[in-house]
Design brief:
The longest helix has 24 residues. The protein is globular. Helix 2 packs across helix 4 and helix 3 packs antiparallel against helix 4. The mean pLDDT is about 95. It has five helices and no strands. It has one domain: Helix Hairpins. By secondary structure, it is mainly alpha-helical. The structure holds 2'-deoxycytidine-5'-triphosphate. The site of 2'-deoxycytidine-5'-triphosphate has 6 residues, from helix 4. It is found in: Cytoplasm, Cytosol. GO terms for molecular function: dCTP diphosphatase activity; magnesium ion binding. Homotetramer. Keywords: Cytoplasm, Hydrolase, Magnesium, Metal-binding.
Length: about 120
């Protein structure tokens, strides 16, 4: 399966972290890019994408939630940069042998203990 056909199949799914991780593994394998996907390279690539994400917000001043005044093209760009950060993060976790869903769930529990709810 190539290009647009692959994208249509992906767009219809609400993928979880493990599925995304598998897609990224396949993406790297198909291009013989596993050799470049070392922990350090992936971390630097992710930080680079965080920089690109920051550029979108740079010099705009504070931004209202939901980005009501933004052009659709700017929102699409934002979605792409957020995705780049997420995808590199998922790939980094996978390459490091970290189960990100499990680690994040445990961290939420840890956060709740550290910062108890005022309403509970
Ligand atoms: N060695 C690589 C290079 C790219 N990607 C994937 C992960 C990111 O989702 C996306 C990043 O691609 P680019 O480096 O082309 O970055 P941008 O999409 O941000 O393009 P540009 O920097 O031109 O805006 O591609 C990857 O997995 N491994």
């Amino acid at each position: 399966m190539e290009g647009e056909e692959k994208m249509e199949t992906l767009e219809k799914k609400d993928l979880g972290l493990k599925e995304l991780s598998k897609k990224l593994q396949e993406f790297a394998e198909e291009r013989d890019w596993e050799q470049y996907h070392s922990p350090r390279n992936l971390l630097l690539a992710m930080v680079g994408e965080v920089g690109e994400l920051s550029e979108i917000f740079m010099w705009r001043g504070e931004v209202a939630k939901g980005l009501p005044n933004w052009k659709e093209s700017d929102k699409q760009h934002l979605g792409e940069e957020l995705s780049d950060v997420l995808l590199y993060l998922i790939r980094l976790a996978d390459i490091c042998g970290i189960d990100l869903a499990d680690a994040a769930t445990k961290k939420i529990v840890k956060n709740a203990i550290k910062y108890p709810s005022k309403t509970a």
